[in-house]
Amino acid sequence: MANQTSTASIGSYMKTHLREYGMLLALVVIMVFFQYMTEGTLMRPVNLTNLFLQNSYIIIMALGMLLVIVAGHIDLSVGSVSGFIGALAAIMMVQWEMSIYIAVPICLLAGTIIGAAQGYWIAYWRIPSFIVTLAGMLVFRGLTLWLLEGQSVGPFPKTFQLLSTGFVKDIFDFGFERFNMTALLIGTSGAATIVALAARNRARQAKFGMNDEPFAFFLAKNGLIAFAIIYITFLLATYRGLPNVLITMAVLTSIYTFITNSTTVGRRIYALGGNEKAAQLSGIKTKRLTFLTFANMGMLAALAGLIFAARLNTATPKAGVAFELDVIAAVFIGGASMSGGVGKIIGAVVGAFIMGVMNNGMSIVGVGIDWQQVIKGLVLLAAVIFDVYNKNKSN
Amino acid sequence: MNTILEMRGITKSFPGVKALDDVNLKVKSGEIHALVGENGAGKSTLMKVLSGVYPHGSYDGEIVFEGETVAFGSITDSENKGIIIIHQELALVPLLSIAENIFLGNEIQTNGVISWPETFARSVELLKKVGLDEKPSTLIDAIGVGKQQLVEIAKALSKKVKLLILDEPTSSLQENDSQKLLDLLLEFKKQGIASILISHKLNEVSQVADTITVLRDGATVSTLDCHADKISEEHIIRDMVGRDMAHRYPERTPNIREKLFEISNWNVWHPEHSDRQMIKNINLSVSCGEVVGIAGLMGSGRTELAMSIFGKSYGQNISGKVFMNGKEIDASTVPSAIKNGICYVTEDRKELGLVLEENIVRNITLSNLPGVSSNGVIDDTSERRIAEDYRETLNIRTPSVFQKVVNLSGGNQQKVVLSKWLFANPQLLILDEPTRGIDIGAKFEIYTIINQLAHEGKGIILISSEMPELLGMCDRIYVMNEGAFAGEVVASKSDQEQIMSMIVKG
Q: What pTM did the predictor assign?
C-alpha cells in the first residue's frame, strides 16, 4: 500500500492542479470583471435567472458533446438537430394539437434515433464523424425549413412553456415578500450534499493514504463552492425562485458526472478515446460504445431543442443555428482534448458558463456582436493554448 | 579492388544501451556486401548511422566514403553523396502515381512548376532499368509489394546512386519476385554500383554476396570473403547466434498436465489483400503448466497467428477450430476469447496494450471491469486494492498506482499490461515479445512471473525473436517461417543453431 501522506503545501498543490482549478478561477475572474463593468447588473437576480435560461440548452448539449469528444469524435449536427426537434414539437403540439405528454417523448425518441443513425455510420462503417455530422448539420437544417415551410410556428401550450420559463413552486409561501424559501432550501441541501460527498470521498482516500490535497485547501474549496451555490440560490430566491431548467440542468449534470466518474460505461468511453486499439483488444465493444455515445448526443440535442423552443415560445427556422460551435467551444474551454480520452463533465459545464457570462456581460456593457465574436474566439484559443502549454511543461 | 566505404570503430549508445560497440565495416567498390545478424544485432542502427538518420556527432567513430571522411547531418547529406537506403517498410505514398513517387522531394521542376512530360519520360526510362512493366501514371496502391519494391529502387536510381542499401528487401516478397530483385542487384554490380544487402535469408545471401559481415549484439563478429573460401550456412549461423547462455533464466521444474488448448487447420488471409495467405494450415497445442514457444523472424507471421486466435483481431477468411479443455469454443470476438480464458499480451504495448494517458489502476482493470463493479457502478475501493495487490506481487516500481502509465519505464509498463491480463483470469496466456525493450533485471522478473503462472497450471504461449529466451523458458518450441510451422523441437534437446537453420532453410 502506498504511504503517500505527503500533504503538499497549498501553493505547490495549486501548481500541480492548475488545469483543474484554472478554468473555475477564470470563471470567477470573468464574473467579477463583468460585475464591476456592468455596475452590478450581472449578478442581479433578474439577470442571473436570465443567464441560466439563456445557457441551459448549451450546457445540456455540452454534457453529450463531452462524451462524444472524449470518445475521440465530434458532432457538428447538434444545432440543426435541436432546431429540427423544436420544429417537430411545434408541428405536433401547435398544428396537430397533440398532448405534450405524447409529443415530448416522441421528440426525445426522434432525437435519439437521429443520433443513432449518425452513430451507425461513424461506428460501424468508420466514416469520420466530422463528415457524417457535417452532412447531418445540412440535412436537418434543410428538414427544419421544410417542416416549418419557412415560417415560425407558435405559440406553444402553456404547460410546454413551463419546461423552460417555469419556476419551482414555493411550498412555504407564507407571505414573505418576494422571497422563495423553497429555492433557498433546495440550494442549501444541494450544497450540503456536495460537501458531504466530497468529505466521504476524502475519508475513503485517506484510508488508503492516497490523499495529497491539503486539508486547508479542501476546506476552502468546499466552503467556497457551498457558499457560491447558497448565495446564488439566495439571489434567485429574491426574484422568482429556481427556474425549472436549472433543476433539469443540475440533475443531468449530476447524472453525467456520475456516469463518467463511476460507471463501467464511462470508464470504457475514456479508454476508447485514449487508445481505441488497446480498448478493443481489452474486450471492449468499441463500435457499440461509439454508437451509443452518438445516440445519447441526439437525445440531449432533442431536449435542448425543446427547451429552446419553449423559451422562445415558437419554433423558427433559425433556431439552433451555430449552437454546435458554442457547445464545442464550451467543451474545449473546459479542458477536453481534441485527440480524445481527456475531459470532465464539470469542465464542460464551467466552459459553457464562461461563454455564457461573457455573452451576457458583453451585451450589457454594449459590446457589439462583431467584437463579441472576436473576443470569444480569442478566449477559446487562449484556453486551448493554456492547456497545451501546461501539458508540454509537465512532460 | 578499391574500397568505396569504410566505417571504423562505430559506437552508438542510447540511454542505458550500447547499440553498437566498435563496429567496423568495409565495402569494396562494385561488390554486393551482405550484412547479417539476429534481430537487434545492430544492423539497422549501423545503416542509420551511415545514412545520417543519426547525425554526425551522435555516435563515435569515423566514416570514410570514396576516400574522404564524411560527416552526414541528415539523410539529404548522404543522398547527395550517392548513398541511398531503401527501408524495410516502404516509404511510398499509396495514392500518388509511380512517377510522382519516384521524383517525390526531387521533382523535375523550374521555379516550383513541375515538368510532367520530362517526369514521365524519365520515369519510363527508370522503370525499364529496373524491369518493371507498368505505366508511370499507375497509382502505387494498384501494384503489389514486389513491384512497389522495384519502384523504390527506381527512385534510388533517379538520384546518382553509388552505394545502394537494401534493408530486408525480400522479407515481404514472393519467391519469384525475390529472385527478380536479386538478379537486379547482380545487374547493378555489373554497372559498378555497390550494394549493402541486409537479409535473414541465407540462401539469398550466399547466392549473391561477395562479402558477408556478421553482427552480433552490436559488434562485428566476422567478415567472410565468399570468393576466397567456401562459406557454409552453418558457419554463418554459428557466428550469428554463438553467444554463451549464462543463468539468465530462472529454474522451473516442468509439471505438464492434461491438454488445455488446441487449434487445428488454422488459415488466415491478409486483411486487405485477400489473395495473400498469412497463416498456412497451422496446428498447435498447449497443455496445462506448459510453456510453448514460437520462434521465427519478424514478418514470419507469429503476431498475425496470435492476433487471429485472439478474437480474430487480425486477418480475414479465418478458418480452423479452437479447442479449450477438449471442447470446441467460440473465440471469434475479443470478449468471447477473454470469456473462454484466452488472453493476449500484445507485442506493441504502447500502441495496443496500454491507454498511456490513464493511470495504472485504470489500465489494470480495463479488461475486466465487471470484476470491480456491481450493476455497472465501479467500486473505487476494491479497484484500488486490486491495483495495489498487483503492484506488490509483480513489483511494479511506481510512487503511486495513480501514476499515468506513460511515465513508467518499459519494464514497469509491461508489468502493468501483464497485471491487466492476469486480472482477467486467463487459462491460456499468449505473450508476444514480452521482454522486448526492457532491461535485464525486469526481464528476469517477467520470466519469474511466467514460471509462476505455469506452475499454477496455466498454459503459456511465448512468442520471441530471442532464441536464448525461448530455449531458456520453454518446454516445446514451434519454429515458424512464412506463415507456416517449419518444425517443432523440444527445448531441452535443441539449440540455437538447429532452430536458426530451420528458419533460414524454410
A: 0.80
Within 8 A of A274 by CB-CB distance, chain B residues are 355-358
How confident is the model over B421-434, as pLDDT tens digits? 999 989 999 999 88
Residue type for B204, please?
E
Q: pLDDT digits over A124-174, tens only?
A: 999 999 999 999 999 999 999 999 998 999 799 998 988 888 888 777 766
Q: What is the tens place of the pLDDT at every residue in A310-353?
A: 999 999 999 989 899 999 999 999 889 888 898 999 999 999 99
pLDDT band of B245, cuts 50, 70, 90: very low
B359 and B326 share a domain?
no
CATH number at residue B113: 3.40.50.300
Measure A191 CA to nearest chain B CA, in Å: 23
**Quick check: is B346 in a domain?**
no
Domain identity same for B419 and B432: no
B259 has pLDDT over 70: yes
**pLDDT-above-90 percentage for chain B:** 36
Report residue A211 as a C-alpha cell. 490523499
**CA–CA separation, A198 and A190 (whole Å):** 12
Same domain, B176 and B27: yes
Which stretch of DSSP H or E encloses residue A317? none
Strands (E), A103-243: none
Residue type, B307: M
What is the number of other CB atoms lying within 10 angstroms of the CB of residue B246? Answer: 8
The residue among B373, B400, B425 that closes a domain is B425
Please give the biggest Cα pair distance in chain A.
68
Q: Is residue B476 part of a domain?
A: yes
Q: Is B10 at the interface with chain A, CB within 8 A?
A: no
Chain A residues in contact with chain B using a Cβ-Cβ cutoff of 8 Å: 1-2, 4, 204, 207-208, 210, 262-265, 267-268, 270-271, 274-275, 277-285, 341-342
Contacts of B386 (CB under 8 A, 6+ apart): B364, B365, B371, B372, B423
Residue B486 CA, distance from chain mean position: 19
Is B374 in the same domain as B495? no
- Establish if B348 belongs to a structural domain: no
Residue B94 has pLDDT above 50, yes or no: yes
Strand ranges for B132-254 from DSSP E: 163-167, 194-198, 211-216, 219-225
Question: CB-CB: which of B310, B362, B402 is closest to A210?
Answer: B402
In terms of Cβ atoms closer than 10 Å to its own Cβ (0-12, 13-18, 19+), residue B271 is middle
Residue type at B430 in one-letter notation: I
Which domain, by its residues, includes B147? Answer: 3-241
Inter-chain CB proximity A341 and B358 less than 8 Å: yes
* pLDDT, position B333: 92
Q: Which of B348, B360, B369, B403 to mutate to test the interface with A (most CBs of A within 10 A)?
A: B369
Give yes or no for a cis peptide into A155 (omega within 30° of 0): yes
Q: How many CB atoms lie within 10 A of CB B353?
A: 27
CB within 8 Å of B258: residues ≥ 6 apart: B287, B288
ipTM of the prediction:
0.83
Last residue of a domain, one of B173, B206, B241: B241
Per the structure, the count of domains in chain B is 3
Between B150 and A20, whose confidence is greater?
Answer: B150
For residues A200 and B287, which has the higher predicted lDDT (pLDDT)?
Answer: B287
Question: Do B37 and B139 sit in the same domain of this protein?
Answer: yes
User: Are B324 and B383 found together in one domain?
Assistant: no
Residues B170 and B291 in one domain: no
Nearest-CB residue to A274 (from B355, B369, B402): B355
Residue B389 domain flag: yes
> Please, which residues have CB within 8 angstroms of residue B202's CB and are 6 or more apart in sequence?
B36, B233, B236, B237, B504, B505
Which H/E stretch holds residue B227?
A: none
- Same domain? For B365 and B472 the reply is no
Q: Do B381 and A204 touch (CB under 8 A)?
A: yes
Does B402 touch chain A if contact means CB atoms closer than 8 Å? yes
